Amino acid sequence: MSFLPDFGIFTMGIWSVGLGAIGAAVTGIVLANTDLFLSKPEKATLEFLEEIELKTLGSEQRTFKAGELWKKNGAVVMAVRRPG
């Protein structure tokens, strides 16, 4: 004759929710800090980079092909693709 309720099912539920929260936190940390599921970037070819049209900044607006940058002198080129 016990007047205390049975907390067995309640305890099992708390453990399940707790383990699920820990699993979700670990998964979130791993996905946020690694590139496991991201697609691998492609390397840009020289022909593709030469054909890109560039615009100058400032008061004098001028448009030219990127290949003009390294026609006479060498150039360091960094191609960045922004999302969107």
TrEMBL record:
This is Redox-regulatory protein FAM213A. The chain crosses the membrane at residues 12-33. Keywords: Membrane, Transmembrane, Transmembrane helix. It comes from the Eukaryota. It comes from Phaethon lepturus. The keyword Transmembrane helix applies. The keyword Membrane applies.
